[in-house]
Amino acid sequence: MATAPASDPTVLELLDRGLLRPEAVARLVDNYIAAPELRTHTLVLGLVLDVAAALQAYPLAGAVLASSLVSSRVKRSTVGTAILLARPRRV
Fold it and tell me: What global pTM score does this model have?
């Protein structure tokens, strides 16, 4: 019986496999916070991530990032979580 092809890994899975360094994710969070209008970011050679799309896919992100009552630390953590759950695309 044929098995279904594996889906693209999440950023967290790439970290677990050692294919991506934690510093790359932290840098990506910093880059997005500094310039949210820049949607697509390169993670590693051949993999890019649309951070805005990752945030849209994470249900809590919109409310957290739009709230003036939420600290910058929580907003940063929310962006990081959305990135970890996202599936970068190959280029």
Answer: 0.87
